[in-house]
Write a structure and sequence with these properties.
The protein is α/β, with parallel strands linked by helices and about 300 residues long. It has helices spanning about 40-50, 80-90, 105-110, 125-130, 150-160, 185-195, 205-210, 210-225, 250-265, and strands spanning about 15-20, 20-25, 30-35, 60, 95-100, 115, 140, 165-170, 200, 230-235, 250, 290, 300-305. The protein has a single domain, classed as Aldolase class I (TIM Barrel). The strands form 3 sheets. An 8-stranded parallel beta barrel has the order 3-4-5-6-7-8-9-10, surrounded by 7 helices. A two-stranded antiparallel sheet has the order 1-2. Strands 12-13 form a two-stranded antiparallel ribbon.
Length: about 300
């Protein structure tokens, strides 16, 4: 394989990417949450207020949206970027958003902490080369039908042009089966962790396409070695202007992050709050732990019960 820069040189060879005040690729998992699309400042304010203590290390929100139909909502553009920038500064939390063309790079890089390359653009080589000339971290999603080698070579384009800050994202590949939106290839996650020093995260939302499948896929991803997750969540999932069926509620997102902690610990990882304090909940050896989250309160209340 010709991915000279992306290839791992030894078992201990791994890159840790700084994304705002968070990191990806080390012991700390990176959990990214938020809506598929930025719809309003009020929406993003609610998301940030609820999730930043969740703990979620970064927020997602699309402002330029590649849609199958030309008649579908394609994002708020510059106005959406302004909202992300304000939320980022107000809540001191990194934001991730997609860039679709070379012309958008400067504006997006000025207002976001990580630039996402969607699956449809994984082999847009001119865009990859242009992104190699900036130093903003890049979240590179696997193409709909891309092989592992093609995925790695796409990352190589960015690395070869000078940007070493690349995070790879497995988001599912197409299959003959229509029960799920895509097939989440966790085997690829394991393979990539052996092949590359770059961090690898998982998007269970686009893989499943159904919110009831997201939590279990997310837990499986962490168990098999993923460095983090990017998950769609929305204040009112059913009213989301795009991908409503796969979005979690904000409360469900928090509960999912809580459920990841014992799995993370089992594989030698941990979940750190956005303020860099270690996330912990009440632990009881013989009791279930129920954790409730209250809006506008920056801590969790844990109350144990003998059973559910």
């Amino acid at each position: 394989m010709e991915a000279k820069l992306a290839s791992k040189k030894g078992n201990d060879d791994k890159s840790i990417i700084q994304v705002g005040n968070a990191t990806c690729g080390g012991k700390d998992l990176m959990i990214i949450g938020g809506p598929c699309t930025v719809e309003s400042e009020a929406q993003m304010e609610a998301v940030a207020d609820h999730l930043k203590h969740g703990p979620v290390q970064a927020l997602r929100g699309g402002v330029y949206k590649p849609r199958t139909s030309p008649y579908a909502f394609q994002g708020m553009g510059i106005e959406g970027l302004k909202i992300l920038s304000e939320i980022r500064q107000r809540h001191e939390i990194p934001v991730v958003t997609e860039v679709m063309s070379i012309e958008q790079i400067d504006a997006v890089a000025a207002n976001a902490d990580m630039l996402q390359i969607g699956s449809r653009n994984m082999q847009n080589f001119e865009l990859l080369k242009a992104l190699g000339k900036v130093q903003t971290p890049i979240l590179l999603k696997r193409g709909l039908c891309a092989t592992i080698e093609e995925f790695l070579m796409a990352a190589e384009y960015i690395l070869a042009c000078g940007n070493a800050n690349v995070i790879m994202c497995e988001r599912g590949i197409r299959s003959f089966d229509t029960h799920t939106r895509n097939v989440l290839d966790l085997g690829a996650v394991v393979a990539l962790k052996q092949l590359t020093h770059l961090p690898v995260i998982v998007d269970p939302s686009h893989a499943a396409g159904k919110r009831e499948l997201v939590a279990d896929l997310a837990r499986a991803a962490i168990a098999c070695g993923a460095d983090g997750l990017i998950i769609e969540s929305h204040p009112e999932p059913e009213k989301s202007v795009s991908d409503a069926r796969q979005a979690l509620s904000l409360n469900d997102m928090v509960e999912l992050v809580i459920s990841l902690r014992p799995i993370a610990e089992a594989v030698g990882r941990r979940i750190i709050r956005n303020d860099r304090r270690q996330f912990s909940i009440v632990n009881s050896s013989n009791k279930h732990v129920k954790v409730s989250f209250e809006k506008h309160i920056s801590r969790f209340r844990a109350s144990s019960t003998a059973g559910r």
